[in-house]
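Reading a protein record of the kind used here takes only a little practice. These numbers are not coordinates but entries in a learned vocabulary of local backbone shapes. Here is one such record, which you should read through line by line.
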Amino acid sequence: MSPRNLSLLAGCIFASLMLYIVIRSQDQNLEFVHSQIVGQFKTPLLHIRLRQASSPKPSVGNSYPTALLIHGLSASKSTVTQLGTELARGGIDCYLMDLPGHGESLERFTWENSQKAIHEVLQYLEWSARPGSDSDQRTALSQVFLIGHSMGAGLAIQAAQVEPGIAGVIAISPAAAAVDRLKLRNLLILVGEFDLPFVRKGAAFIFHQATGILPPPLDHAGAWHSSDGSRRIVVLPWTDHTLGIFKAQSLLEMANWLKFVYPQAHFTPGTSWTRFLTKGLLCFCLSLLSIPAFDILYEGIQALKRSPAALPKNERIPPLKRDSTLGESARGMFHRPEQGHPPPSKRNFQERPKRAQPGRFDETSPLWSYGLAGALAVIALLVVNPWEWLNLMGGGYLSGFFFLTGMQALWCRPPRWDSFEISLPDVISVLSIVLLLGFVTAPAFSKYFVHVSLSTARLWRLPVMVLSLFPFYFFDEWACRCLILPSKSRVRLLFFHFSSRLILALILVLGFFVLHNTQFLVVLVLPGMLVLSILCWCYAGMIYRKTESLAASALFSALTTAWFFSTFFAQL
């Protein structure tokens, strides 16, 4: 085992432990209580509150408010955990829920089910005793604020009109909703300067209904409010659709508005970026852990199989037969020098047989293959989508898109069959590293950022999605590792990768705006998909350098992406 890998592994473990201790110390004054409501939807609930020893005991008629945080489409309560934590530091009892079909919820997602689940949670809050108070002191709806993001904001606005006793609504990048100004008392709308155009228009529409004031186009930072100040809209600078639930300025706007409409909620939020970055660094270290772990695991499996790499230096490896596969030579099965003979020169080492390489592409034809195959896939999915039976909003469409794109690209330029070669150690190593990411790294992401822990109710979709995604990722690995990388230009390789992802993203965007395929969720999650694609590509490159197997690196990307699709998208 390489000392470098052992040092990196030990460093990642030590850094992760230290960061975890820091996070625990930052949250030592908070309590995180997980529960599940006994009702029709069995809604998973997370209650974040100050510990009784550090929270001021509220007096009668002068209590702090309660906040119910509602996440957006294909998200979970994990995405609003950071916001709930910062509000709880100010003394606000925060309840975070998973909508049906999201996160840990096992129910099916529909708009009606989501409305009923919110009503069920509000009933639970109304009948539950406030922590740190007498058992007969209940949570009145006049103390409850609804805080929603995206679709959750639209649901919060509707719920506040059905339950007129609600204290107010904070809508972050809200989905468009009908508003009755007589039923909605207090309203704060936060929207990003670089939010999606239809989201900004929807926010202006909501504000106009609630106040009768038509704001100017929300394409620059600013704020507008009603005559009494209870209804306000703020455009946050340098903010997109997601940053509104993480930025410190967003939290400051909430605190100032809450002080105005609910004077008992008097608190000054601190800077949250330090705590946010600490959690991000923990997830990064846990992700980095898999790199040395894969090398150590792969070398260990090879040693158990008595591979040539594990033999002593003074032991000669029998020469390869002339009809041996190129895959064996690519794994380092070449002649070792007998004792007393000089080692082979670098030139001779580089001239050893390589894996079978496909015919040369010209500089543009790989990108044309992505573009043409992707465009044909979008058109074909307009007619029929056989992956709809997966019942994942957006996930089934993307699975079909990648399958059709990959199959058409492979049909245009079919590789040689020996390019699909993969050994048992390769398969075991890839599966092990995916399980490491799934059971070590994924829980940290699920706790702090986005729910990516795979439940048994969603497990059956994983093999179907892996088979659907594999053709695309195999062609992608083939193009990158065999067609572009041999040119020995790292700049060209990076340009090719980012260009191919940009082409596919533009095709998906055009499919929604031009062909009207109704896949708006795919457009919303494109930034996250691009980040996931870059991470998978980097990890796949590490696996290919170790195994020199296109199938192994493609299998890793397909497994990781299928895991994300199975856990992230809403279950219909």
User: Anything to note?
Assistant: The chain has 18 helices and nine strands. The two ends are 47 Å apart (CA to CA).
